[in-house]
Backbone:
């Protein structure tokens, strides 16, 4: 399974990078191959200063070795070996009318002292963070997620949509990071779902990513915007940074397993503002966004 999924994310990385380069039209991804001293490595690809995308990364990694102490405590296990691989992406567009997007699909195995698998699971999802709310964009993104989920189980979309709303919640701000999407973790074999079934589901979601995001980019990338709207984008990007550094499990996992710092922090946008006690004007488009972020909404 680990070889099969790693092969999948290598191919998916190529497909997503090409799709994003095509819509940007000017900038290409820069590639870095890196190795982790304790075992494994990855392939980081970053796009910067494009016509559409100000900064973005589409990274894959496959790491293995002894499970660090911090992870042992998290999983409630003693000494063990592990393998983890996944694809993680974050794209920050230049135009504030185009939403930021994040996605991640990953697989994890844990072994006993004889090398036998004692635990294995999939995780991942994809979510949208707009700066100006175009409801048709949120509907399109969620409907694409729902279509992928419905091919496998009619309950998956509502379950993983709620998990996404719960997970990407900036508790210290009492607001969502964005308009959500899907989030799932610890997808293990059950009586009704084998690991092969979970593989088929997770790859279905991965394959839906470009269809979920690219049409939104195409609709919004050439819209005009003002300096004030750009400033609002940078203030909201600050909330994005706060979530990733305070709450995000993937970021923390990378930092605690001696991951490659440049690859982990590629999720951070290049231009951000923290304005003291900032509040949008009453009745403005900016306030409309905040009102939606304070209470999760059904989109599909």
Residues:
């Amino acid at each position: 399974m680990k070889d099969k999924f790693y092969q999948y994310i290598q191919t998916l990385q190529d497909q997503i990078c090409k799709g994003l380069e095509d819509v940007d039209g000017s900038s290409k991804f820069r590639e870095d191959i890196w190795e982790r001293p304790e075992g494994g490595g990855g392939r980081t690809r970053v796009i910067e200063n494009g016509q559409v995308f100000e900064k973005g990364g589409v990274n894959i990694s496959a790491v293995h070795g002894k499970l660090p102490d911090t992870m042992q405590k998290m999983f409630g296990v003693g000494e063990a070996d592990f393998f983890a691989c996944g694809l993680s992406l974050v794209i920050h567009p230049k135009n504030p009318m185009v939403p930021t997007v994040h996605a991640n699909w990953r697989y994890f195995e844990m072994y006993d002292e004889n090398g036998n698998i004692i635990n294995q699971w999939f995780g991942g999802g994809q979510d949208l963070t707009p700066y100006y709310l175009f409801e048709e964009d949120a509907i399109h993104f969620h409907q694409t997620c729902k279509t992928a989920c419905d091919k496998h189980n009619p309950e998956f979309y509502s379950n993983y949509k709620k998990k996404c709303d719960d997970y990407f919640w900036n508790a210290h701000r009492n607001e969502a990071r964005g308009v959500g999407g899907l989030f799932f973790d610890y997808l293990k074999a059950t009586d009704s779902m084998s690991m092969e079934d979970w593989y088929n589901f997770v790859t279905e979601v991965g394959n839906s990513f470009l269809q979920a995001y690219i049409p939104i980019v195409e609709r919004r990338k050439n819209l005009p915007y003002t300096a004030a709207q750009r400033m609002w984008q940078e203030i909201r990007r600050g909330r994005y940074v706060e979530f990733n550094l305070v709450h995000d499990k993937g970021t923390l996992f990378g930092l605690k397993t001696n991951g490659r710092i440049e690859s982990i922090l590629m999720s951070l946008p290049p231009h951000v503002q923290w304005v003291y006690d900032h509040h949008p004007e009453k009745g403005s488009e900016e306030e409309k966004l905040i009102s939606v972020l304070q209470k999760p909404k059904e989109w599909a």
